[in-house]
Amino acid sequence: MARSESNELEQGLEELRLTRMVTILRDRLRLASDQHWASRRLLKDLVEEELASRREKALAGRIRRAGLPDKWTLETFPFDRQPGVDKKHMYELAELDWIRQAINIVFMGPTGVGKSGLASSLLMKALLGGFTGLMMRTQDILNTLHESIADRKTKHLLNRFSKIDVLVLDELGYLTLNNEQCNLFFKLMDNRHLARKPTLITTNLGYDDWASNLNNAPMTKALVSRLKQRCKTIVINGPDLRDSQT
């Protein structure tokens, strides 16, 4: 291919924002010429490289937006130090059928047993599997929703949080909530239930203790009932992993 034609082709690829193709074009043209590739093979190679690059960028974007506190993975989770967690069960969850079936997950247990680490690990598996996700402390997400009332952005935020494939609400414990925040929490959970989007919750409270924490017993009862319609509740009784590190 003449240099002018090559330059025109590169310019066209740049305008189409096929950035990976632009990067590898000249190398692939030389390789195709040396090895006598058919035009179909050359085109297939260029397209595969571009698709792989876009998938990699999309994954990086999903991870960046997910707000993972640490790069936890199931492969690095200290199962050997936490007998309260069934390793086989966690790897079954890593197959992500619970997301496809819109099944919620609630990790219950005292502080330090690895609830947040497991939640973060499963979220990472979801991101690798092509799903969108977000992990936030429950107090923080409810504060964010409440603050949005002044800017009249609450509906927009609720829609955004409701559409995320996997929402992790971390540390649903002894929260400081007003009535508006409680109502927003119920609305968020109701929206996700109707949209069939699973929610993963970590908490140090049993279900019976949620009502006193959320300040509305009837609504909490309805929320828990709906949550548990499609839910895996995993109670972790085991040692504090932070203690075992000292």
Question: Would you kindly provide a written description of the structure presented here, covering whatever features stand out?
Answer:
Helix 7 crosses helix 9 and helix 9 (179-195) packs parallel to helix 11 (217-227). This protein is 59% helix and 11% strand. The mean pLDDT is 91. It has 246 residues and is an alpha/beta fold. The protein is built from 12 helices and 5 strands. A 5-stranded parallel beta sheet has the order 2-3-4-1-5.
Largest sheet: 5 strands, parallel
DSSP helix fraction:
55-70%
Strand content: 5-15%
Average predicted local confidence, pLDDT: 91
What is the spatial order of strands in the main beta sheet?
2-3-4-1-5
Separation of the first and last Cα atoms: 65 Å
Helices and strands, in order, run as HHHHHEHEHHEHEHHEH
**Rg, Å, rounded:** 24 Å
Please count the beta strands (DSSP E, at least 2 residues each): 5
What would the principal axes of the Cα set say about the shape? elongated
Given helix and strand content, the structural type is alpha/beta
Unreliable segments (pLDDT under 50, ≥5 consecutive)?
A: none
Features:
246 residues, alpha/beta, five-stranded parallel β-sheet, 12 helices, 5 strands, 59% helix
Outline of this structure?
This protein is 59% helix and 11% strand. It is an alpha/beta fold. It has a five-stranded parallel sheet with strand order 2-3-4-1-5.
Write the layout of secondary structure elements.
Layout: H1 3-15, H2 19-35, H3 39-66, H4 87-93, H5 97-100, E1 104-108, H6 115-128, E2 133-137, H7 138-151, H8 154-163, E3 166-172, H9 179-195, E4 199-203, H10 210-214, H11 217-227, E5 231-235, H12 241-244
Parallel strand pairs: 1-4, 1-5, 2-3, 3-4
Helix pairs in contact: 1-2, 2-3, 3-6, 7-9, 8-9, 9-11
